[in-house]
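During the no-cost extension, the postdoctoral fellow (Dr. R.K.) reprocessed legacy sequence entries with the updated structure-token encoder. One reprocessed record is reproduced below for audit purposes.
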Amino acid sequence: MGGSGSKAKGAWPFSGSGGDSGADGNEQSLARLKGSRNAAPFVFTRRSSLYYDEDGDLAHEFYEETVVTKNGRKRSKLKRIQRNLIPQGIVKLDHPCIHVDFPVVLCEG
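Re-encoded structure tokens follow.
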């Protein structure tokens, strides 16, 4: 869940330094600031990390058991399947979460 933050530098007023230099850059960062205040702080959906296989099973990873014969001895190995997998897609969250880039104080200690 930590990989969903934005990569924009200097977009928040608390950052101290702007990401762009020049008059045009300052105008763009101000426009981003005004637009970010209208954004909702909650996230209701996320991209799932689960996949469907050819049979319709849902899991994070799929393995196939293969039998390997070496020196007349049979051994079974697990081979990871990485082809023909379909991502589950966007999943609705049970409880809304606070967006990573939203600057809010949750608790003052």
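Strands lie at 42-47, 51-52, 58-59, 62-70, 73-81, 86-87, 90-98. Residues 10 and 73 are 62 Å apart (CA to CA). The remaining legacy entries will be reprocessed before the final report is submitted.
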